[in-house]
Specification:
The two termini are 20 Å apart. By secondary structure, this protein is α/β, with parallel strands linked by helices. It is 34% helix and 28% strand. It is globular. The strands form three sheets. A six-stranded mixed beta sheet has the order 6-7-8-3-9-10, sandwiched between helices. It contains eleven helices and 14 strands. It has three domains: 138 residues, P-loop containing nucleotide triphosphate hydrolases (Rossmann fold, 3-Layer(aba) Sandwich), CATH 3.40.50; 67 residues, no CATH class; 81 residues, no CATH class. It binds adenosine-5'-triphosphate and magnesium ion. The site of magnesium ion (MG) has 5 residues, from helix 1.
């Protein structure tokens, strides 16, 4: 699959510009869309699945214009919205059966096999008789992904699927997506949790206030933050002064003071050591630091790789 998003704009009726000239190209495998609350992730995803029209720009899927072929294109998508709810009074297997029918599996026997296989795949076979809206949060999310993938879509779009899950369920969900991504599909995953991206995504984009501020691989993102992350030991009384000057990422207490990891362009006057950044450092660097000196021209050339 090749999804080409060009100069995409979204202005809501109240005038809010939620997407600003967004350019992203997405291929096979797992693509991570990372950004804080309000960045425009859900807006972009709803446009991708044709639930909403953009105000400008275009999206093509394998060269076919999404706007001009909305109906046909919808069948290519599996979508798990951010606030997915189940109808009451449907058992888990009944809900999946219903989803399978919507996805075009009309043969009853085929549908039964598909539902059983899917329940096994997402680890819900044991609870198949339970009402869907009575499942635990993690189970609901797994049933949500099951309804998105049961029709064998070529493009799978999941909007913040790990929010509110405990670490075990988060890992489980991530592994499930990674397994699905081995098929011949494109998965687009949005999240504001950095850890969701690091282990599973081949490519990613960072969205901030409707703008793409980075695109590339997670390791390229980390490279961008090299030389800007420091470790610094300070006395307890200096904490306030240092925290007013720098972006502190972690503070670990040590005898008499703190060991800090922080982000800065330089550390003149401090006895600090440069350390290797991780993805979380890089995320904060882009979100809260780099943009203060953001230069559109420089950004353009950086992004046209
Ligand atoms: N229907 C709407 N009308 C007006 N503004 C909207 C509408 N929907 C979203 N917005 C605004 O557009 C911006 C982007 O919202 P969006 O839901 O796409 O962000 P998000 O990245 O998905 O955030 P979150 O992580 O909280 O889900 C926000 O400022 C939001 O308030
Ligand atoms: Mg959202």
């Amino acid at each position: 699959m090749n999804i080409d998003i060009r100069d995409l704009e979204k202005r809501y009726s109240n005038g809010h510009r939620a997407l600003k000239k967004v350019n992203i190209e997405i291929g096979d495998g797992m693509f991570g869309l990372l950004g804080p609350n309000g960045a425009g992730k859900s807006t972009l995803m709803q446009i991708l699945v044709s639930l909403m029209k953009p105000s400008g720009g275009s999206i093509t899927v394998n060269g076919v214009d999404l706007q001009k072929h909305r109906k046909e294109m919808r069948l290519m998508y599996g979508y798990l919205p951010q606030d997915f709810r189940f109808f009451p009074k449907l058992r888990s297997w009944e809900f999946l059966d219903y989803s399978a029918r919507l996805a075009g599996i009309s043969n009853k026997m085929k549908r039964r096999d598909a539902v059983e296989a899917m329940l096994e795949e997402v680890g819900l076979y044991e609870v198949r008789e339970r009402y869907a809206n009575k499942l635990s949060g993690g189970m609901k999310r797994r049933l949500g992904i099951a309804q998105a993938i049961i029709g064998d879509p070529k493009i799978i779009i999941v909007d913040e699927p790990t929010t509110g899950l405990d670490p075990d369920e988060r890992i489980r969900f991530r592994n499930l997506l990674t397994k699905v991504s081995q098929r011949d599909v494109s998965i687009i995953l949005s999240t504001h949790i950095v850890g969701d991206i690091s282990s599973s995504c081949d490519n990613m984009a960072l969205l901030r206030k409707g703008e793409v501020v980075f695109k590339g691989t997670p390791s390229q993102l980390i490279d961008e933050a090299k030389g800007h992350v420091y470790k610094l030991n300070i006395d307890a009384n200096d904490y306030e002064k240092v925290s007013s000057q720098f972006n502190i990422i972690t503070s670990i207490p040590n005898p008499g003071g703190w060991e800090l990891e922080l982000i800065s362009d330089h550390m003149k006057g401090y006895d600090a050591t440069i350390i290797d950044p991780n993805l979380e450092h890089a995320y904060v660097y882009f979100m809260e630091h780099k943009l203060e000196t953001w230069n559109p021209d420089e950004q353009q050339s950086q992004l046209s790789f």
